[in-house]
Amino acid sequence: MKKLSGGQAAVEALKVEEVAHVFGLIGSATMEMFDALYDAKEISFIGVHDERTGTHMADGYARASGQPGVVLAGQNGPGATNLVTGLAQAAAAFSPVVSIAGALSSEHVYRDAFQEVDQQSLFKPVTKKTWTVTQTGRVPEMFREAFRVAMTPRRGPVQLNLPRDVLSDVKEFSAFQSPSSYRSQTLPAASKESIKAAAELLLTAKQPVIVTGGGIKNTGGHEAALALAEALNCPIATAPGHGDAIPFSHELNAGQMGPRGNPVASRLVKEADVILALGTRLGFNSTFYSYDNINESAKIIQIELEPTAIGRYFPVEMGIWADALTTAKQLCQALENREAQKEVERWTQDYKREREAFLRKRDSDAESDVHPIQPSALYKELRVVLPKNVAVTMDAGTLCLQATDALNYWQPPALFTPLDFGLVGFSFACGLGIKLARPERSVVSLMGDGGFGMTLSELSTAVDHGINTVTVVMNNQCWGAEKAYQRDFFGERYIGANISSPPFDKVAELYGAAGFRVDRVSEIGGAVEAALNCGKPAVIDLAVDPKALYSFRRDSFKHRGG
Question: Which CATH number is associated with domain 192-357?
C-alpha cells in the first residue's frame, strides 16, 4: 500500500499501460496529474497548441501503433469542449483514443461555476463510453476500464473526466493490475460449419472478388488476405480510405472500389457473382448504400467483428461474426488443394490486363507539361519520389479524395484519412502522431491550404519535439470541394469559397521548420526529396491550379439538374 494523490494514481495507471506518449495542453484543472508526469520519465509529454489537434495526434498514434493514443486536456470547460471534434473523428475511424480531461470540483457542480459544462453528456455521442470519476480511490479502476473499452473490438475513443477534488485528494493504493489481467488476448474465430459453407460458396464462383477493409488493415492481415486471394485466384479490391490494406506491389491488388475508387476495382464489384467482404461494412464511402456500386445479384459473404454491421446495408448470403484475419487463415486452410472454377482464370486474367492498362493510362494522362500544376501531375510525381516506407496522411476535400487511390502504398498501414467523418484540418496533426509511433518511416501529409491554415500552429510542436514530417500544402486558394459544387450546380455564384493565405514555406521557416515553394511540376521531385532529407519538420507550399476542381458528391445535387 502507498499513499498517492488522484493525479499520481492516474499517472501510475498510464505507466502500467506502458503509455509512451501523452499529447495534451496544460491546464490548472489537472495540475496534480501534470506534476506527476514531471516525474514519469518513461512517458513523453507532447505539449500541443489546441486540444483538437492533440486528439488527432493521439488518433494517428493509435492507428499506426495499434496501441491506445492518449490525449490530456488540462482544463475543464473550453479545454474539454475542444476535444469533441477530434473524438468524433476517432469514433468514425474506430481508433482507440483514451481522452482525459479535467472537470469541475464536485462541490461546484450545478452551481453555474466558472467554466462549467456537462462534460458527461457532452462526450457520450462521440465516444464508446464516457466516465466521470467520483472517488479518488477508484481512479485506477476507471483507467483500467477506459483502456479495456477503447481496445475492445470494435475499438474506439473513450473519455475520462477527472474532477479537481478527485485529483487532489490522497488515498492509499495497492498494486496496480497488469493489462493482461483485464484485457482480452484473443479474437473470435468462425465456426467449422461456417468456414466449410463459405469455402463451398467461393468455389462455385465464376467471377469472385474479395473486398477488404479496416478489419484487415488494422490487424496487419494483408498476408492472410493475399494468401486467400491466391488460393481463389481472384482479385482484391479495397474499401475507400483503406487502399493500403494490401501492398500495391501484388498483382491481385485492384485498389479502391466504389464511387471514390478507380474504374477497375469498381467494375469488379459491380460484376462479381460472389463478393467476400473481408472486414468491411460495405458502408457509405464504399457504396453510397446503392446497388449502383455493387452487383445486386452477387452472393455476399460478409465477415465482420461487429455483428451489427453484418447485412446492415446489403442482404448477405452468409454472415460470419468473427475476426477477419483469423477467418482468412481458416478459409485458406479449407481451400487447400481445392480448385476454383475454370472461368475464374479468364475473369482474373481480364482483370490483370485491365489493371495494367489503367496504370499505364494513369501515368500517360498526367498533365505534366501544364502550368499551373494539375493534380494528376502532382500525384504522378509523388508516385515516383515517395519512398516505399512512406506513411501518407490526408484531409477531406476534393484534392485529397482524388489522391487516396492515385498514390501507391507499399507497406501497410500507409494511408491515414478522416474516413467517414470527412474532416478538414486533420492530416498534419495526424502525421505527427504517426511519426512518433513509427519513427523509422517517412511521413508525408497532404492538405489543402484551408486545412493547413487551421492547424499550422502545431509547427512549433513539431519543431520543439523534433517530429520530422513533410507536409505538402496543395494550395489552390479556395475551399475546393464546395467551390466545385457552386461552379457545377449553383451557376458560379461563389460565396465563401475563395481564401487567402500567407506563403506557408516562409511561415514554416519562422517557426524553425524547413520551407519549400513549388510552382512547376519539374520542381516537385526535388522539393520532396529535400524535405524528406532536411532533418527538420518541413512544409512544401505547392501551387495547384485553382480551376482543377471536381464534384465528388454529384448525387447530392441531382435535384439541381446538373
Answer: 3.40.50.1220
